[in-house]
Design brief:
One of its GO terms (molecular function) is site-specific DNA-methyltransferase (adenine-specific) activity. Keywords: Methyltransferase, Transferase. Its EC number is 2.1.1.72. Pfam families: MmeI_hel, MmeI_Mtase. With 1003 residues, this protein is of the alpha+beta class. The chain folds into five domains: 148 residues, tt1808, chain A; 124 residues; 183 residues, no CATH class; 138 residues, no CATH class; 188 residues, no CATH class. Helices cover 46% and strands 14% of the residues. The chain contains 33 helices and 33 strands. The strands form nine sheets. It has a nine-stranded mixed beta sheet, with helices on both faces. A hairpin with a 3-residue loop joins strand 4 and strand 5. The chain starts with a helix and ends with a helix.
Length: 1003
């Protein structure tokens, strides 16, 4: 069929929808040279007319034509309202497997609506005459065979990012003029909703855009005009000649528009040009909040958490259990239907085959029984549907740190999608059509930030309205926006009086609580708040735990007391270790972790971080860890057998390992100086006759270990030197005045102006000349040692090195107060590395292992007779130069073997790091310090590449062999017949855990 023939036929046609639609479609197939449904799919499995069940409205099918993965197509009679057809397709899209195109036609027009996920929908209208144009005809051809070619290029994410960026900048401008930030936030959210309302037709005739256009001409009247509009939206009525619905909700109760400049209005008019009906509110809220909140403005334009990431918590906690319930309900329904059908068939067969009077009576009785059973079955099925509808309608999701509402919105959408699916299923079975009952009242929130709390309400409203319209449902009116008191603005973890706040009961809890490390809590929140918080949870959460753990403990308690069934929360991945892990251990003691992602990328406050996603609660589902089914999930978010013999989180702190492993000093100020300046000071006199070498020391941090030494020194007045005594060291003291004391004073002044909490700074200022954390216990443990063992807290490889007694370690280092090669060797072995990786926490976007003095070292079971408690009474230097501790005679051979292997490993590494042919040893400017290593000019460039990280990246054969020899010696000391290389990680951990538990019990 040619375009001319098609146009001629259908221009004069007066056929109704029922008599003309299928012929019209078949003619289109001929025109496009496409097969008809019956030609390629005789059974109608993927391409057919009248797809779906009989609708309760009386007509047949969910769509007049359906082609899987291409389109749903609905016809109307000529010049009928095609919007009604489009609404119907929207409503039944899930039953049609969500085709990418929704097409409607009245046999004169064909309108293609794109429905690709994550894109802004586009509409293509084809009139009959357009079919003469090859390019227009091609659009229709693609709908049949290549629908992907019709995918719009503008994504909802890109549209939303643009809208949030522009709106956020306008909000920032208004705040910079001195307006109250809360008033700016409320005004901007009112305008935001007006843009959305006019683009979906709730405000007629582009009313808000016209208001801005006219207002730009008379700016002095614009605030009053906006006030009039907002007041009308609050109550309903007329704005000029335009009827305005009653919106209510509180959003428009306080109409207080701010004065706007001509530039402001121009920006708003530009914003009005965007398609606000298609914004993604789960993204917009986060981005817009950054423009409203003064503390987040530097994050404008930064990344955000995408909805797919959030659904990794919402699905297992909220939706998957409900889907399981629905699957069980459907199975019961199908079993009932099968029984009913079987009984009806048996009665029918009996009726046909019997001719005697007695047989006929038996058949009549059977038919009557079948009819009664059918009625009973129908009632049972209706009750099953009704019960599940009630279950969904009464289901509550709580986000106790809801921010701008993205978790709540995605949970609400999921619940509504499931309810819609159930409604379609009930319709397919011929039951009366149900109404959508799930709505904003199904989600509950708690949020401390006032900007975010109000924005969360707007996010939920917009998301609710979008869903209803996008699925073909009309909006409830009078009012359009129901008052949402479900999002409370308050502190979720501690009340002002120090008591623990109540959370509302809910079926499940989800959310992304704030990330703030325990060290940063004091500076960010103040001493008084942190003290109140920690006192409130004393005995439940250790003082060194991060802020996020308080939400985990609260959620656990809600589950334990029956106020929730399950929870799914985000945490930094450090929750797997250290003090944080104790919170997960409490969770495992009272309930179950049933789904977790142990280490995933995430966006927090615009920055990329590594997180753990943890779902816990009452469930019988198979545990899933990192998308794999496992037997159990432990508190460190590893998997294993259900028996406790493989759960490393059960490891105990060992008394025999105590008080020799420490974190290095923390300076919190510019106490560090260059080696050049240090050497200058070392030769200068002081008025009290003491040298500056008393308070000037080489200083080493993690990078000095993994890379080359930086020749950095530090001013160290110790932990008990008075300010008056420190002043005698003239140059170092003056340096600290200029670079530490003055900086603290300036920061205190700035923070006071900005109304920030300065308690942390005030406490630092009390002893400004001292390092913030001087570690007196560490210094005492190192007294008398010529050297000590050191490892970076965060490192790709677990590397142990020696540091001279004069070197002061930074807080990014962990030190072990031992000078013998045997201890060094045990720690450097594969056995200890395996243990440390199982007990460590993880850090940064690189997800590097973080060595923890307590969880990694103090739990580690050294070989019997070679523990720190057994080896602290003296040392002995062997002929080889290796040093062993004084040990009992029966363990001496093992100590020697380990020390010799460790000594050789260290020598080989040092020779590779600093080849004698490439370097010179230069004595320090004053006695008592280790020699400086200076590169010979010809080898300076090559020497820069000689780092421990590069060495272990390469792993040359000699290094591997040296480690194998060491591992064999350590394995022998444990009494293991196999050496460490022959044991897999699980076997090593099981043996070490058994030894730890036995030793811990003895302790």
């Amino acid at each position: 069929m040619t375009p001319e023939q098609f146009i001629a036929k259908w221009q004069i046609s007066t056929l109704k929808e029922s008599s003309g639609s299928q012929e019209h479609f078949i003619d289109l197939c001929r025109l496009l040279n496409e097969p008809t449904p019956a030609e390629i799919d005789p059974v109608g499995a993927c391409y057919c007319f009248e797809r779906g069940a009989k609708k309760t409205t009386g007509s047949d099918g969910w769509a007049d034509v359906w082609k899987r993965n291409c389109f749903g197509w609905e016809y109307k009679g000529k010049r009928k309202n095609l919007n009604e057809a489009f609404v119907q397709l929207h409503r039944y899209a899930p039953a049609l497997e969500n085709p990418p195109l929704l097409i409607v036609s009245d046999m004169e027009r064909i309108i293609i609506h794109t429905a690709f996920n994550g894109t802004v929908s586009k509409e293509h209208v084809l009139q009959l005459d357009d079919l003469r144009i090859p390019a227009r005809l091609q659009l229709l051809k693609w709908a049949f065979s290549e629908p992907e070619r019709l995918r719009p290029t503008l994504t909802t994410a890109a549209l939303t990012e643009d809208a949030a960026r522009q709106f956020g900048q306008l909000a920032q401008t208004l705040c910079e003029r001195g307006h109250d930030t809360q008033q700016v936030a409320h005004f901007c959210q009112q305008m935001l909703f007006c843009f959305f309302a006019e683009d979906i037709g709730l405000l007629p005739n582009k009313l808000f855009s016209e208001l801005l256009k006219n207002g730009q001409k008379r700016l002095e009247h614009l605030p009053q005009t906006l006030t009039n509009l907002f007041n009308t939206m609050a109550t309903g009525g007329f704005f000029g000649n335009d009827p305005v619905d009653w919106f209510n909700s509180g959003l428009f109760d306080a109409a207080a528009p701010l004065p706007l400049t001509g530039t402001d209005v121009q920006k708003l008019r530009k914003l009005a040009e965007l398609n606000w009906s298609a914004i993604e509110p789960s993204i917009f809220g986060t981005l817009f909040e950054r423009g409203l909140d003064p503390n987040q403005r530097e994050q404008l334009g930064a990344h955000y958490t995408d909805p797919a990431s959030i659904m990794r918590l919402v699905n297992p906690v909220v939706l998957d259990p409900l889907r399981e319930e629905w699957a069980a309900a459907k199975l019961t329904i199908h079993q009932l239907l099968e029984k009913s059908t079987q009984q009806q068939q048996e009665a029918d067969e009996l009726s046909k085959s019997q001719v005697t009077t007695k047989a006929k009576k038996a058949a009549e009785k059977a038919l009557k029984a079948a009819l009664s059973f059918n009625t009973k079955t129908q009632n049972q099925i209706e009750n099953i549907f009704r019960d599940f509808f009630n279950r969904l309608q009464n289901f509550r999701v709580l986000d106790p740190a809801c921010g701008s509402g993205n978790f709540l919105l995605l949970a609400l959408r999921g619940l509504k999608n499931l309810e819609h699916e159930v409604i379609l299923e009930s319709e397919r079975l011929g039951l009366p059509r149900s109404f959508i009952a799930v709505g904003p009242e199904n989600v509950l929130g708690i949020e401390l930030n006032s900007y975010a709390a109000e924005l969360a309400r707007v996010t939920v409203w917009i998301g609710e309205i979008q869903w209803m319209l996008n699925h073909g449902f009309s909006l409830a009116k009078n009012p359009i926006l129901k008052t949402i008191n479900i999002i409370e603005q308050r502190d979720a973890v501690v009340n002002a009086d120090g008591s623990e706040p109540n959370w509302p009961a809910a079926d499940v809890i989800v959310g992304n609580p704030p990330f703030l490390g325990d060290k940063r809590m004091l500076g960010a929140m103040g001493d008084e708040y942190v003290k109140r918080l920690r006192n409130c949870y004393q005995g439940r959460i250790p003082a060194g735990a991060d802020l996020v753990t308080y939400w985990f403990e609260k959620a656990r308690a809600q589950i334990e007391t029956g106020k929730a069934n399950a929870a799914g929360l985000v945490s930094t991945n450090s929750i797997r270790g250290g003090a944080n892990r104790q919170v997960l251990e409490r969770i495992c003691a009272t309930t179950t972790i049933f789904n977790a992602w142990s280490d995933e990328p995430w966006i927090n406050s615009g920055a990329a971080v590594r997180v753990s996603l943890i779902c816990f609660g009452n469930t019988v589902l198979t545990p899933i860890l990192n998308n794999e089914a496992v037997a159990a999930i432990y508190a460190d978010l590893t998997a294993g057998a259900i028996d406790a013999g493989s759960d490393i989180t059960q490891a105990k702190i060992l008394v025999s390992n105590g008080r020799i492993c420490f974190i290095g000093t923390q300076k919190s100020g510019s106490f560090d100086i260059t080696g050049e300046l240090a050497r200058q000071w070392l030769t200068e006199p002081n008025p009290h006759g003491k040298p500056n070498s008393d308070v000037v020391r080489p200083w080493v941090n993690g990078m000095d270990i993994t890379r080359r030494p930086s020749d950095t020194w530090i001013i160290d007045f110790g932990f008990n030197m008075k300010e008056s005594n420190a002043a005698f060291y003239e140059e170092p003291f003056q340096h600290v005045i200029n670079n530490v004391k003055c900086v603290i004073e300036k920061k205190i002044t700035e923070w006071q102006i900005e109304n920030k909490n300065t308690q942390h700074l005030q406490r630092q200022y009390e002893t400004w000349w001292q390092l913030w954390c001087s570690r007196p216990d560490m210094r005492e443990a190192l007294t008398g040692l010529p050297r000590y063992i050191c490892t970076p807290r965060v490192s790709k490889y677990r590397l142990f090195v020696w540091l001279d007694k004069t070197v002061l370690p930074d807080t990014r280092l962990v030190i072990v107060a031992r000078s013998d090669d045997m201890t060094f060797g045990i720690l450097s072995s594969q056995i200890h590395q395996t243990w440390s990786l199982a007990t460590c926490s993880w850090h940064g976007t690189g997800n590097d292992p973080t060595y923890n003095a307590k969880s990694c070292f103090e739990t580690f079971p050294f070989p019997i007779g070679l523990t720190p408690a057994d080896t602290g009474d003296g040392i002995e230097t062997l002929d080889s130069g290796a040093i062993i501790p004084t040990v009992a005679a029966e363990y001496r051979d093992h100590a020697i073997a380990i020390a010799e292997a460790a000594f050789q490993l260290n020598q080989l590494r040092e020779n590779w790091l600093n080849p004698p042919e490439w370097i010179e040893h230069q004595p320090e400017i004053v006695a008592g310090y280790p020699d400086r290593i200076i590169a010979k000019p010809a080898f300076a460039a090559q020497l820069k590449q000689r780092t421990l990280t590069n060495l272990y990246n390469k792993k040359p054969a000699w290094l591997v062999n040296a480690h194998v020899k060491l591992d064999q010696a350590v394995a022998a000391a444990y009494g293991w017949e196999n050496n460490a290389a022959e044991l897999n990680e699980a076997e090593i951990l099981q043996r070490l855990l058994a030894l730890n538990l036995a030793r811990g019990k003895a302790d």
